[in-house]
Specification:
mainly alpha; 10 helices; flat
Amino acid sequence: MSTPEELSDTFISHLIELRNRLLRAIIAVVVVFVCLFPFAKDLYTLLAKPLLATLPKGGQMIATDVVGVFFVPVKVTMLVAFLIALPYVLYQIWAFIAPGLYAHEKKTTIPLVVASTLLFLCGMAFAYFLVFPVIFSAMTAFTPEGVSWMTDINKYLDFVLTLFVAFGVTFEVPVAVVLLVRMGIVSIVQLKEARPYVIVGAFIVAAIFTPPDVVSQFMLAMPLWLLYELGVIVAGFLAKKAEAAPSAETGEAGISPQGESSQYRPLSDEEMERELDNIESRQKSDS
């Protein structure tokens, strides 16, 4: 059993490793940001392209803040730098938590992290290429006669970031559904029974996070519902695969040749202590 002094040393070493991992991730983002900084104005122009393309002839965006023309492109550049450096940031997070995970947890975590990252980026792309043009065209069509529609660049950035987050989180629904099923919180049957409530909730969420037009609300609510259905299908497939694995190995689902149950059993205190001692010894040998 580990002594209090050894536990304290281990805790401090974990803090030092966490600090080093965070510093590496921050340095990676800063390096990418410095490389992109000369293109800050171009990056904001690219972000504003869906709106600029729908403005009437001669229309333009405005900046009501004195320093907004500098800080808004810088904010956009920082966000782009973070997205580019995201794989390295995720790797640093994974390198920190991986030694404390079991083999089956590692097999589950990596696909979920990769899938959630790709789905979030797909949600942002869906908003940029499909939703923004529709929203801004609708706003242009509803602009009253004689009114000049000129949007402040800072408010535009806040608006698009809100929609990026809304659609990015929406595209995470399949991952959330799979996690709920894998953790045993809900079953496939319960997910199917909740379908009518999910559809209603999808339109409520869309009404909150999108402008007050039917088209944009529909473009958020429908993917939310379809992604929920995709999550149910994937979760059902994984559940059937997990049930078939024990039967393929033992001939009976969940029963070993010795008649012992193959279902998950929590570790006892002694087993947990042995696992912790093994992890500490591996860390000392690696250092």
